[in-house]
UniProtKB/TrEMBL annotation:
L-glutamate binds at residue 43. Its cofactor is pyridoxal 5'-phosphate. Pyridoxal 5'-phosphate binds at residues 106, 156, 175, 198, 240-241. This is Phosphoserine aminotransferase. Pathway: Amino-acid biosynthesis; L-serine biosynthesis; L-serine from 3-phospho-D-glycerate: step 2/3; Cofactor biosynthesis; pyridoxine 5'-phosphate biosynthesis; pyridoxine 5'-phosphate from D-erythrose 4-phosphate: step 3/5. The gene is serC. GO terms for molecular function: O-phospho-L-serine:2-oxoglutarate aminotransferase activity; pyridoxal phosphate binding. Residues 5-351 form the Aminotransferase class V domain. GO terms for cellular component: cytoplasm. Keywords: Amino-acid biosynthesis, Aminotransferase, Cytoplasm, Pyridoxal phosphate, Pyridoxine biosynthesis, Serine biosynthesis, Transferase. It is an enzyme of class 2 (transferase).
Length: 362
């Protein structure tokens, strides 16, 4: 291609063009230092200012109160799947334990990892329906003695998203990797939010943890120092070298989000974009969504062709038009269009046009 395409990849994913242009322009000489941001000390004044501004902008965008710490770490969401039980399970009153609401492969993985550190109690699961729904909260078998309740706010593979943050008595721990900053949340509803940056924020290698401060300082003695949130909070996430380039780029994305009108404005865009696609799917006799209407993801729109033998032709035809990476995850098949904040509505319109055209040709 001699132009940018519309990249529907689930993550690493498309980034705002403006941000990439700025990063390119500053690559060799950042802030007049005569060197790039990747080349400067993480503890020096210029980088510390960049780090602090990124944290402040994220706090502003998500309305994060002072009673929460914001950490910029490494290890991805998968790393946090181990860090979470190590940091929080000691809060359980009868030995290490947590409750899991399993709505897809990501929460399945979280529970499996947590089981290495304590009891990972499956309080509810939608496995029986092929992870196309979210179990009704009144049916959750929450335990009295769990330290926390773990959910995934948006299951990236299945395309299943909580439309409201559930209210639970215990601290709610949410994997927000694939829908952070895409909708307005009340942070007070969470104990911990965590996720990798490579979908809605920036490059892979940066993970973000937002944790209520009273949950800090209870980590198991075996917790590796870099994943002890209290220690990281005391050290401005700099117990070791943080992912500096990822933090810088995330900072540029936060500024971009502020210019777009913040999270509320993004949410309106995301509603509009996802409605375009779901309306197309629902009015078609070729495409189907398997996900319950009340939990369809605005970020990862999964759908199937009724005639699966057309899958390859559909994907190839899309790629010819520069509509890339719409093939579904291998574990579920079908198609998936990931339409994070940085996907312009023009990309979704182009995909919808193509879907209609393809169906007409069948
Ligand atoms: N949780 C969710 C919801 C994800 O989508 C992903 C990545 N696709 C992960 C966890 C794993 O994240 P990472 O690769 O950053 O460890």
């Amino acid at each position: 291609f001699d132009r940018r395409v519309f990249n529907f990849a689930p993550g690493p994913a498309t980034l705002p063009e403006e941000v990439l242009k700025q990063a390119a322009a500053e690559m060799l000489n950042w802030n007049g230092l005569g060197m790039g941001v990747m080349e400067v000390s993480h503890r020096g004044k210029p980088f510390m200012a960049c780090y602090e501004e990124a944290i402040a902008d994220l706090r502003e965008l998500m309305n994060i109160p002072d009673s929460y710490a914001v950490l910029f770490l490494q290890g991805g969401a998968i790393g946090e799947n181990a860090a979470i039980p190590m940091n929080l399970m000691p809060l359980a009153k009868n030995g290490p334990k947590a409750d899991f609401i399993v709505t897809g492969i990501w929460t399945e993985k979280s529970a499996k990892e947590a089981a290495k550190y304590g009891q990972a109690h499956i309080a509810a699961t939608s496995a029986a329906t092929g992870f196309n729904s979210i179990p009704d909260q009144k049916d959750w078998q929450l335990s009295d003695d769990a330290a926390y309740v773990h959910i995934c706010s948006n299951e990236t593979v299945g395309g299943v998203e909580f439309q409201n943050v559930p209210k639970v008595a215990k601290p709610l721990v949410a994997d927000v990797s694939s829908n952070i900053l895409s909708r307005v949340w009340d942070i007070n509803d969470f104990g911990v939010l965590f996720g990798g940056a490579q979908k809605n924020i920036g490059p892979a290698g940066l993970s973000i943890v937002v944790v209520r401060k009273d949950l800090l300082g209870h980590a198991m003695p075996i917790t590796p120092m870099v994943w002890d949130w209290a220690k990281q909070a005391e050290n401005d996430s700099m117990l070791n070298t943080p992912p500096t380039y990822g933090i810088y780029l995330a900072g540029l994305v936060f500024k971009w989000l502020k210019r777009q009108g913040g999270v509320a404005a993004m949410e309106q865009q995301n509603i509009a974009k996802s409605n375009l696609l779901y309306d197309c799917i629902d009015s078609s006799s070729l495409f189907t969504s398997k996900v319950d209407k009340n939990c369809r993801s605005r970020m990862n729109v999964t759908f199937y062709l009724n005639d699966e033998s057309l899958n390859d032709a559909f994907v190839e035809g899309a790629a010819k038009l520069g509509l890339m990476n719409i093939k579904g995850h291998k574990s579920v098949g079908g198609m998936r269009a990931s339409i994070y904040n940085a996907m312009p509505i023009a990309g979704v319109k182009a995909l919808v046009e193509y879907m209609k055209e393809f169906e007409r040709g069948c």
